[in-house]
Amino acid sequence: MGLAFDLLLTLLIELPIFALFFKRKKRPAVFMYGLLVNFISWPIAHILKISTDVNAPLIEVLVVTGEGFGLWLLTECGWKKAFIMSAIANGISYLATSFIHIDPEIFQNKQNIIIH
Q1: Cα-based angle 36, 42, 46 (whole degrees, multiple of 5)
Q2: CA separation (Å) from 34 to 9, 79, 103, 104?
Q3: In whole angstroms, what is the distance from residue 26 CA to residue 39 CA?
Q4: Helix 2-20 and helix 79-99: axis angle, to 10°?
Q5: 9, 10, 101, 105: which has the highest count of C-beta atoms within 10 A?
Q6: How far is CA 33 from CA 22, 53, 61, 67, 115, in A?
């Protein structure tokens, strides 16, 4: 449950930040591209975090690079804009998911269920 909450929090933070960098007309496409790059980079990053001893900040640098490259290709904006956008969005979401945690016991406590 914690990983799903982290993904939701990441999307809720990063997608609006991506949208702020573009005009209204291009925002729907940017939302889709943001979802695409996050749905590719997020599982890869968490597989690396879980299965290797590589520290999280290094993995986050790889995520920023990968998402920046993907956004650059998909949005057809300048590479500097794509990498700045990726660095800001991923930096904020990394800090948020580092400090905001949800206790999995909240959703697994089923003592209050009444069965007739």
Answers
A1: 160
A2: 14, 15, 28, 27
A3: 20
A4: 150
A5: 10
A6: 12, 30, 19, 10, 45
Domain boundaries, the chain: 2-102
pTM: 0.81
Tokens 């291009």 belong to 26
Q: Are 36 and 66 in contact, with CB atoms under 8 Å apart?
A: no
In tens, the pLDDT along 57-112 reads 999 999 999 999 999 999 999 999 999 999 999 999 999 988 887 776 666 656 66
